[in-house]
Batch of 2 targets.
Target 1
Amino acid sequence: MAKALLSKKQIKANGLQFKKSMVIMWTMVKKNIKNQYRRSVLGILWTVLNPLLTMLVMAFVFSNIFGRNNINMDYPVYVLSGNIVFSLMRTATVTALPCMVNNYDLLTKTRVPYFVFPASNVVSSVVNFGFSLIALVVVMLIRLSHGVEFHWTLLMIVVWLPAIFMFSLGIALALCSIYVRFRDVKHLYNVFLTLWMYMTPIFYADTLLGEKVRKVLIFNPMWHYLGYFRDLILGVVPTWQTHLIIYGAGAGMLLIGWLIFKSQRRSFIIYI
């Protein structure tokens, strides 16, 4: 009987702790989004304008350099879809990288699970991605006369999103843990992101790459996430193998990130 009562109390305590963690995380998400566009005239509208302006620049610059013949979809839509997907991962990981250091006061003054801090940055990036989808829909509407169509498969974004969320969260957990001890990782990761971006077919068709490079590209998870997302735009239902790849990459990266985070979290206060 005593064990049963203890178990109920423990469950209740865990539930209250989880609720508290979710409240704090959502507060941090709202704070992150507000701070991102603080003192900006257009404010949150930049979450829609940024991908649109980036798409215009990239479409203008790269359409003539790489050509559009090897791309099986409207080029502005192709560029924008690739850009917002890669930006989701990049923003989530870059903003989460210094989160443990930047939230030192909260770490020492509140009893909240440490994972809330990197998770809040990833959730903020997902919210921004939602606004970026508005930009994509606007561009698709404008390009209807160029053969762009809307398909029901776009609803499958809700199936795709958890996979890239896990992948981004895994990287975020690993980076914020390493950054506590090695601040140089911030600069190294920015260089790596630049290479990663150019090794991902955001504004060019992967068919332009050599056979050897394409074999390496298969091991780039973002290539699979972009391919899945673009298939939804084209009205193609991805295969079960594709689902296995994106969820396998997401779960695998999340596991690696969590193990690194768990092994380092006791030393956060010491090194910060």
Target 2
Amino acid sequence: MKCASSTGDEMVRNCSTAKRLMESWARGVVLTSAILACVFPGSVAGADLRIVAPNAVKEVVSDAAARYERASGNRTVFTWSGSEAIAKRVGDGEVFDVVLNTPQNLDALAKAGKIVPETRVDFAKSGIGVAVRAGQPRLDVSNEEALRKALLEAKSIGISSGPSGRYLAELFQRLGIAKQVQSKIRQPPSGAQIAELLSRGEVELGFQQISELQHATGVEYLGPLPAGLQSYTIWSGGVHSAANDAATSRTFLNMLVSSDSASAIRKAGMDPM
């Protein structure tokens, strides 16, 4: 900063003021850095936090990521996929800092040495929803008989390759209609969105996690499976054993179980743990 635009006493006063301002700014930078160091111990300024997560928790995790970025000044880099595809990628050696998945998959990855076992946290519970293509008549799926009727009358049925799809295959057996609907089932690879199949008219009736259907474009969300037939998936997170910054990764996981995340979890159609 130049201080020569004035002369004499005025120049001295201007230079003194400028010096105090610069010292105050410098102290502020040091203080902010110290605070962030306490909140995010061991973190490196500007370092990316690499997160792999299922599509089912995208809304919730994105909300937590925004808060993390504001607090830390670091960036989150996401890879979105299906739970089974994530388990395979991490199991095959792909490295992330934070891995989000089902407890069963995380526990299996921990046994394989890919996840630090004691870092697992369960943050949300989600049920299965039902939807049709937007503009189609709303079907009644509010009870067992109504759901059975909708399944038998549908020309095609979309289910995921993740936890909800496995459960539905068992449910069709329980309902006594497995043989009748078998030829109508479309089950895309892990990570595919049933809402997209519905919106393109590739299936008439679709099932997936509520969080993946209720706000999706191009579909009419009918509601959850009937209470007596509902199944819930727990969503969890863990720190990868080869994470760049394990402490910061744990801090992000703690954000997922905070009260701030609880409201986002409910908004997404899930329940906080």
